[in-house]
RNA sequence: GUGGUUGUAGCUCAGUUGGUUAGAGCGCCUGAUUGUGGUUCAGGAGGUCGUGGGUUCGAGACCCAUCUUCCACCCCA
């Protein structure tokens, strides 16, 4: 080991046990998505740089991984910029591609590009990794998976309601029953900004109020004042945001407070409609949180976020975007979607010990290898078990029994089947139950039913 | 990107104000048991102390740089 091999900061290897757990999350999500009629798509790991730039705000642009051009890229770059050592501007000259930062923007590009192949409303899901050049910390990685569900080409608020049902269903199926599902509407926020006379500061207002539960009203006030928002407006906003509790009543009070703002009224109506469309069981889990803002600025209507009291950051988030495809040349194509952060969900579930025990099992049956013709009998019998729907493997080497037993034990195999000299002569096999330690001699033809009996 | 933090055996960690051959538990390997894992017992292997410089008679301990870990900020799944 001259040089220890390593992987880039913020990326990870996954051992079989971890990988099985991750797949449990993906499978659970996928199953729910499909039950609601969503279909899968995939897009490339890399996009053209200009597809991604400018979609996530200034901060977002910095976190996009740019891919160095191939060939003699320096020869083509402008001498001035190279000499000026301005990394920002040089970057665009030597990089044309980038790793995708999320799945939503590539999806918008995909829809525009494949519009003639799709029928709308188009409901798709997508489970793929994304990359961000963020500093790693708890629940934050440089490579992580998102599980996105979006419906595009429909303005109906039934979609928002359906997504909330999906969110509830996925977390329930994962065994995470105490998540907090919060919703809000950007039109409400926009209306609040307008009625406080700070429409032009909308962006920095949302960023600030999103931190309310973290830094408190004083902190938010400070930040807004620091960013040059008018004091009177700041006070008014903070006052409105004090409203909370039962959604319908809250909305009613809010409506009284933002008199004259058509946009706020519209947002209020939208939230009401979404709540109305929800089944009772889901509606009672959804909180209206007027301080929920979300950083990504392409959201225009409903916004959704899921968190957990024992986890520092959100584990799922999304919202409606009226014109994401517009930038790529397709107007009038509103979409709404949510994204599950698989890695954060994994961390949370691991912390809570919520993964099912059964995920560990590998093969159900291992055949001990006794070499030569006896292993042929094992191979045939293993094949028979597989046709019966059992998972079975034959140890590949003629190793010491002890070693083979240990392998079965380490791997968590339930049964070990021994076909050695004795068994070969008598057409019997020896079955050892590794959990109980019991050992039985059974006729080879009865092996399947014997094991099935034990399993049931 | 800013500030802080961490790195010693495969893993989790000890290692006194700088002082001989760097330790433990678990794991791993071998044997007791050449057809029996997990339990028990006996033995064994394994570390250029993250990396590169420096201070010192002497560095795992001190200094600098760098990488990595975790945390806060920014922002976010």
Tell me what the structure shows.
The structure is a single chain. With 456 residues, the protein is an alpha+beta fold. The chain has 2 domains: 16-42 and 100-352, BirA Bifunctional Protein, domain 2 (2-Layer Sandwich), CATH 3.30.930.10; 361-455, Anticodon-binding domain (Rossmann fold, 3-Layer(aba) Sandwich), CATH 3.40.50. Strand 12 (365-367), helix 17 and strand 13 form a beta-alpha-beta unit. It has helices spanning 16-35, 49-52, 57-62, 73-76, 79-84, 87-94, 104-113, 158-174, 186-195, 202-209, 212-226, 231-240, 247-257, 262-277, 280-283, 342-352, 372-387, 401-411, 421-426, 447-455; strands at 39-40, 46-48, 66-68, 95-99, 122-131, 143-152, 180-185, 286-288, 302-307, 316-321, 335-341, 365-367, 392-394, 415-418, 428-433, 439-443. The longest helix is centred in the N-terminal third of the chain and has 20 residues, at 16-35. It is built from 20 helices and 16 strands. The strands form 3 sheets. The protein has an 8-stranded mixed β-sheet. The protein has a 5-stranded mixed β-sheet with strand order 13-12-14-15-16. Strands 2-4-3 form a 3-stranded antiparallel β-sheet. It is elongated and about 95 Å long. The protein binds one RNA strand of 77 nucleotides through helix 3, strand 6, strand 11, helix 16 and helix 18.
